[in-house]
Amino acid sequence: YHGFGIQRPHQQQQPVPNSDAVLNCPACMTTLCLDCQRHESYKTQYRAMFVMNCSVNKEEVLRYKIPENRKKRRGPKKMRSSHEDAAEPAEAQAEELYHPVMCTECSTEVAVYDKDEVFHFFNVLASHS
C-alpha cells in the first residue's frame, strides 16, 4: 500500500548496489545478502561484508589448512638463504580459521566468517542480476 491519495515530498532514490547476486537461504528462501561479490574460480561461492538474517557462531571454530601451492612464493629456491628454508616447515602448518554462519530463520549453515570480518557464502540460492 503506497497511499495513493497522500501527497509526499519527492524523495531522493538511492541507487541499487552493484552486486553480483542477491543471496537467499536454500531451505527457507530468506534473503541473506543484497550486495556480494562472486568468487573468481568457484562460481557458486560469494563473499560479502554486509548481511542480514545471519548469525555467527563464535563458539565454534572451523580450521582450513592452506594447500602448498596456495602459499606466497618468495622467488626461486636457489636464491633463498638457509635460514628462510628452516622457517618454511612452520609455515607449512599454516591454517585459516573461520566461524560457521547460520540462517536466523531456519538455522541452515550458509556461510563462514573469517578474521577479516568477511562472510564467505557457499550454501545459498543466488538470483543473478
UniProtKB/TrEMBL annotation:
Coiled-coil positions: none
Q: Name one GO cellular component term.
A: nucleus
Chain intervals with Basic residues compositional bias: 70-80
InterPro entries with a match to the protein in the record: E2F-assoc_phosphoprotein (IPR019370)
Name the segments for region: Disordered: 65-92
Which Pfam families did the record assign? Eapp_C
Say which domain of life the source belongs to. Answer: Eukaryota
Q: What is this protein called?
A: E2F-associated phosphoprotein-like protein
Organism source for this protein?
A: Mustela putorius furo
